Amino acid sequence: MSYDKTRLNLMNSIYQLDLNKYSSVNDLDGFFETIEISDENKIKAKLERLSYIDRSLLRLAIFEIIIEQDIAYQIIINDIVEIAKNFSDDNSYKFINAILGDYVRNYYNE
């Protein structure tokens, strides 16, 4: 299985967990809620306002950025944005890119 198919399968799994309200994603919710983002994106960043797809993609991207040290975060973000272009709303990819950019600036480069 290619890495792209693996990423799509993981995104789908996270999406299904979130959609079905399984408790195994609660720790991810708490982690995501602690991410500091720019003032311009704060209103949009509440988890309950995001679509299930967008939440799944953000969780997957942040997980990969933290865990996959051998893959540049720029590649991960670009791949996630491309998935968002295909599976999410027309402008969601811009929002996802902005949130992940804020995350990388605030946490990843420390």
Strand content: under 5%
Beta strand count: 0
Largest sheet, in brief, is: none
Discrete helix count = 6
Tell me the series of helices and strands, N- to C-terminal: HHHHHH
The assigned structural class equals: mainly alpha
Task: Describe this protein's structure.
Helix content is 70%, strand content 0%. With 110 residues, the protein is mainly alpha-helical. The mean pLDDT is 75. It is built from 6 helices and no strands. 26% of the residues are buried. The longest helix has 17 residues, at 3-19.
Give a brief rundown of this model.
It is built from six helices and no strands. With 110 residues, the protein is an all-alpha fold.
What distinguishing features does this structure have?
single chain, 110 residues, mainly alpha, 6 helices
Explain the layout of strands and helices.
Layout (H helix, E strand, L loop, with lengths): L2 H17 L6 H8 L5 H4 L9 H16 L5 H15 L4 H17 L2
Helix pairs in contact: 1-4, 4-5, 4-6, 5-6
